[in-house]
Amino acid sequence: MRIAIAAVVGVLLAAGASFGTVQLVDNSQKDPVIKPLYNYGSR
Amino acid sequence: MNERARHLVAALTGLGLGLAALGPGLAPGFVLSYDMVFVPDPAFTALTFGLTGIVPRHVPSDAFATALATVLPADAAQKLVLLAIFVMACTAAASLVPTTRLLPRLAAGVCYAWNPFVAERLLLGQWALLLGYAALPWVVAAAAGLHDPGGGRRLVRSLLPAAVGGFAALAVSALTALAVALVSPGRAGARERAAGAARVVGAAAVLSLPWLVPGLLRPAGVPGDGSAVGLFAARADTPFGTLGSLLLLGGVWNGETVPDGYGAPVTATIWLAVVVAALAAYWKWCREPRWRRGLAAAAAAGFAVAALGAVAAPALEGMIGLWPGFAVFRDGQQYAAPLAVAVAVGLGTAADRAAGARLPGVAVAAAAVPVILLPTLAWGAAGELRAVRYPDDWARARQIIHADPVEGDVLVLPWAAYRSYPWNDGRRVLDPLPRYLHRRVIVDDAVSVGTTDGTTTVAPEDPRAVRLAPAARTGAPPVETLRAEGIRYVVVDAEIGSQRPSGPAAEVLRGPDLAVYRIDGIAASPGDGVPIAPVVAGWGIASLVVFWSFLATGTTLSLPLLGSTKPRSIPPRRRTP
């Protein structure tokens, strides 16, 4: 059970660290210039 | 800890992963990304069931989403579906690891719910495919147990999420189940294997009826554009080439739906080491006799199909030329799903060995490494998945159009399938108007993809879009042409002001996000849809089989899938003398 709790806590910590990193990166990006795009995507 | 508690912990872990992955997408509103289109107050229309004559790729997933939205707000229904994908994926993969230890099971569950495949397909908006992906470990277990009492029913139940997902999800699941049924049963004879394969094909065929019938009966026939093979073939998103990227469960055709930062040399190399170690552990230590070889065969077959468009495009084009149905193999990367099951189970098996060798740190690392190596799936895939509200103009347009007693169809301009609305932060999305409005909406269904040579367009499939294309492409279709085609309204949802019907059309709404033009004196809409009776029969047969699958003695709706494998008990520790 302790191992299970450690695993869940580990996953949550990793998710938290990921979340923080992504937030920092996301906030540091400038807004992209929005123009009409009609493609499904680009290879 | 009993089996039910293990499933609960795995489900909660999946829920945590889902909450972390969706992030801002869980706010009120709709997440609109590429193929993911949910709308407020959806209705059951001819489009929902594929009766309008277009290719029914959205059947029955649209019907499922609409049914869910009758009991929940539509945006909440979307979040529920997306979270369910993570919960099911984690729980199903965890249940497949043959151990009673919890941590190795969680390692498999985390790996299966949080990897490049899930990230790329989520960004591409393919929630319906991911529904089938999430339940794939259950399909493996059910296909291996086909000869047990109630095996057929269990297979149908396990295929249900894929059946809801539609043709792509069911194709992947059926391929996996077929490989497991043909290869796995150790002492089964050729006749038993053939019988198992026939039951898989039968179950998949019946569950396919909701989309198969309208697809086959559409007046324009089954489309299959061989030229699109190159567009939707897997591509390299790591330094290890296309095949290496597929092995790492990435390689989606669309370069825009690769998570930020994924494929960097250092993290990609670590992830490669993890995947190779997981596959080695699967082969060496996974001793589950019922599906071990079958899952390996399914993973190999899936990998071969995934690579087909990239390494043997002319062969796939030739196959599509022979029978257009082979177009289902064009978007190859989705067939890497059974490989993802093998990698997840292998990682869980390796973690089990580590835990057995009193190395709990290794087991904990195995559970955490998929998240650590792909951090940009978190927070709505680094902010790519955000909830937005449809503009007020859209609601006003719907009110006006639905209040009109005069029948007639709707044409959407600009003439293109995808949009990047400013109110959706410029993210690409399939035009939501066909689902947003409850009339027949004609929109360009020719898909354009940016390539190094410019833009390549796949031929349109809707016969009415084909007929209207020459006029609509101008941005100012003549009113006379629209009248003859039964077009009552023209809705412009981008480049407002520069596009409108030419001639006597009344502007009934003009806002910053939408303009609506009404045309009077229209002809009756041409009837080129699909006959209703066979489609109703198809739904009836599929529903009866699903109902039958839940009729087994002692079966409940809550846990019919979870007990898919009998966990191997841990041998008691010997005391050293």
TrEMBL record, chain A:
Top-rank taxon: Bacteria
Protein name: DUF2613 family protein
Species assigned in the record: Actinomadura livida
From TrEMBL, chain B:
Keywords, in A-Z order: Membrane, Transmembrane, Transmembrane helix
Segments traversing the membrane: 80-97, 127-147, 159-184, 196-213, 262-283, 295-315, 335-355, 362-382, 536-563
Highest taxon, organism lineage: Bacteria
Keyword Transmembrane helix: yes
Name of this protein: YfhO family protein
